[in-house]
From TrEMBL:
PANTHER family: FERRIC ENTEROBACTIN TRANSPORT PROTEIN FEPE, TYROSINE-PROTEIN KINASE. This is non-specific protein-tyrosine kinase. It catalyses: L-tyrosyl-[protein] + ATP = O-phospho-L-tyrosyl-[protein] + ADP + H(+). Its EC number is 2.7.10.2. It comes from Oceanobacillus limi. The keyword ATP-binding applies. Keywords: ATP-binding, Kinase, Nucleotide-binding, Transferase, Tyrosine-protein kinase. InterPro entries: AAA_dom (IPR025669), Bact_polysacc_biosynth/exp (IPR050445), P-loop_NTPase (IPR027417), Wzc-like_C (IPR005702). Residues 54-175 form the AAA domain. CDD domains: BY-kinase (cd05387).
Length: 225
């Protein structure tokens, strides 16, 4: 099936494209390198991005991380697995009429859901908001989906709901190779971060580390001096 290349939309949030040479985009490339190092003993082909609470920046982290991996030459699939409050389709300006949820209930085949953003970057949006997200994300269909896309792509990035709000992210993380916890400075309490880490651990998720979001860098803080 021929997939059409889409025009990327909310560029202000995609610093890895709009501001490719600034400090923010460099930090995403550094994060990419750290994940690559974590993949030495075991390939990380499926990666969950979550956070303790809403508004921590998990979706922007997932989106920019998917972009920098695709810029490295890897074939990347970004999946909006937030079946409650999806937002990936807003950032990339694609439709959300059908997506992951439609696939999981047997309504659509996978190929019909893919939007090609760039040569190496594909996206599957969340689709219709179902009444039972945990049942769908913990289903055999979801397990088969993860297995299939992991075989087809070098990396699959899942944007999931906040881990302390619902069980969805833990369900997906338990089936993936790794997970990252996005923490916003001056917003998340230490107890909440520890609780989120504990909850992911209980699910059997492989927590690779945490991403500190929202920390301002001094204007004269250059990578090279």
């Amino acid at each position: 099936m021929l997939k059409r290349k889409r025009k990327i939309g909310d560029r202000g949030n995609l610093v890895t494209i709009e501001r490719n040479n600034n400090q923010s985009s460099e930090q995403f490339r550094s994060l990419r390198s750290n994940i690559n190092f974590a993949s030495i003993n075991k390939d990380v082909k499926s990666l969950v991005i979550t956070s303790p609470s809403p508004g921590d920046g998990k979706t922007l982290t997932a989106s920019n991380l998917a972009v920098v991996f695709s810029q490295e030459g890897k074939r990347v699939l970004l999946v909006d697995a937030d079946l409650r409050k999806p937002s990936i389709h807003h950032i990339f300006r694609i439709t959300n009429n059908f997506g992951l949820s439609n696939y999981l209930i047997g309504q659509k085949d996978m190929e019909s859901l893919i939007s090609t953003i760039d040569f190496n970057l594909d996206i599957i949006p969340s689709g219709i908001i179902p009444p039972n997200p945990p049942e769908l994300l913990g289903s055999m269909q979801m397990k088969e989906f993860i297995s299939t896309v992991s075989d087809q792509y070098d990396l699959v990035v899942f944007d999931t709901p906040p881990v302390l709000a619902v069980t969805d992210s833990a369900l997906v993380a338990s089936q993936c190779d790794g997970a990252l916890l996005v923490v916003r400075t001056k917003k998340n309490d230490v107890k909440d971060v520890e609780k989120a880490k504990e909850q992911l651990g209980f699910s059997g998720a492989n927590l690779l580390g945490a991403v500190l979001n929202g920390k301002k860098e001094p204007k004269n803080n250059y990578y090279y001096k």
